[in-house]
Design a protein that fits this description.
By secondary structure, the protein is an alpha/beta fold. The chain has helices at 16-31, 50-58, 70-79, 116-119, 126-142, 151-161, 184-193, 213-224, 258-267, 282-289, 300-305, 319-331, 333-347, 352-365; strands spanning 2-6, 36-42, 62-66, 93-97, 107-112, 145-148, 168-170, 200-204, 231-235, 250-254, 270-273, 294-297, 312-314. A 7-stranded parallel beta sheet has the order 3-2-1-4-5-6-7, sandwiched between helices. Strands 10-9-8-11-12-13 form a 6-stranded parallel beta sheet, sandwiched between helices. One of its GO terms (biological process) is lipopolysaccharide biosynthetic process.
Length: 367
């Protein structure tokens, strides 16, 4: 087959969609030896990493770049829905994801990560709310296949947009783990870099309303008034409408490198994830893979991942439920050991090889 895919979102380091896109492209390059691919990307200020482009070329695959900013393409494709990419004339399928939904000459498959803009619109930036609303209008009308990251997103698509069950393929993304099993000195050097002391509780995610960091901090501060508990470390890009109220016990590191993040996961006493809604939830699986015991919200796709006792679960809307999760993570040593064991087993189930195989099977079946 001749296939195309929009990889524009790969430039957004430190975001779930950026990690997803990079993992999927790696899977295609690593496992596909039969099909021809065109990797499309747009951009004006941000550029794809040159090493990444060379990896594509080394596999004798092709790229197509349009030097237009994302806002311009969103207007052309989501608002006006004009300008079919000429290269799609020669494709069997074109795969889109996350931001824009172009009209195409070929059949179209689309990845929908979540419907947070419909479920919790007050937690989404107005620009994203507008763009995603327009995009999903075209997605549901034109895409022959819709890949979703979880049963949660499938149910939401069927309930909100009345999408036919047969059109939706649930395909859990893989996770890409590097810098595993760092030695004690390597981990200590990272802690020194950020002036952290052991032990600490870690949370990871872009700081924005739906990640529920404010509620997490309120619960933590309330707990510290009653208990002597480890520090809280927050990692993630600064998003919109969210301030991190740091103090001597709450450390906000912002974006960190994959190496430093691996060291933090492997050093933390526990990991807590209070998000209100997720289409998938990379951080809790990454924590599991690095051997960090997890406590997570009992909402959306997070419940799908945290099955069979692989993580503690709590109500992210209830402060006492969050503080209880903190206390269990901190005080129950044997439970932490069991969560580490179960979590590692659970994280092993999410591979990019399985994602690639499921995707290709669906594309071939619907060709």
């Amino acid at each position: 087959m001749k296939l195309g895919i929009d990889i524009s979102q790969i430039v957004y380091k430190g975001t779930g969609v950026g990690r997803f896109t990079e993992g999927l492209v790696d899977a295609i390059l690593n496992y596909d030896t039969e099909n021809k691919w065109v990797f499309f990307f747009s951009g004006f200020r941000r550029q794809l990493n040159e090493k990444f482009l060379q990896k594509i070329y080394s596999k004798k695959q092709h790229t197509t770049k349009w030097s237009l900013p994302p806002t311009a393409l969103a207007f052309l494709w989501n608002d006006l829905h004009i300008l079919k990419p000429p290269f799609t004339k020669k494709l069997d399928w074109f795969i889109t994801s996350d931001w824009t939904e172009p009209p195409t000459y070929s059949k179209k498959a689309t990845v929908v990560h979540d419907l947070v803009f419909k479920k919790y619109p007050n937690t989404v930036h107005p620009k994203i709310l507008s763009t995603q609303t327009k995009r999903l209008q075209w997605t549901t009308q034109e895409s022959k296949l819709i890949f979703v990251d979880s049963q949660t997103t499938k149910r939401d698509l069927m309930d909100i947009y009345s999408v036919d069950d047969e059109k939706i393929c649930v395909n859990y993304p893989g996770i890409s783990i590097s810098h595993q099993d760092l030695d004690k000195e390597a981990k200590l050097n990272v802690l020194k870099k950020y002036k952290l002391s052991d032990p600490f509780i870690l949370t990871v995610g872009k700081v924005e309303p739906r990640k529920n960091i404010k509620n997490l901090i309120n619960a933590y501060n309330a707990l510290r008034e009653e208990e002597n508990v480890p520090d809280l470390v927050i990692v993630g890009l600064q998003g919109w409408d969210s301030e991190v109220a740091v103090n001597e016990n709450i450390h906000y590191l912002g974006y960190v490198s994959d190496y430093d993040l691996a060291a933090l996961y492997q050093s933390a006493l526990g990991f807590i994830f209070p998000s209100i809604y997720e289409g998938f939830g990379y951080p809790i699986l990454e924590a599991m893979a690095y051997g960090c015991p997890v406590a997570t919200s009992n909402t959306s796709s997070l419940e799908e991942i945290a099955i069979n006792g692989t993580a503690l679960v709590f109500d992210p809307f209830n402060q006492k439920s969050i503080t209880d999760a903190f206390l269990v993570l901190i005080k129950e040593r044997e439970l932490r050991r069991e969560l580490v064991k179960r979590g590692k087993q659970r994280s092993d189930e999410f591979t990019w090889k399985r994602y690639y195989d499921t995707m290709m099977e669906a594309l071939i079946k619907n060709k």
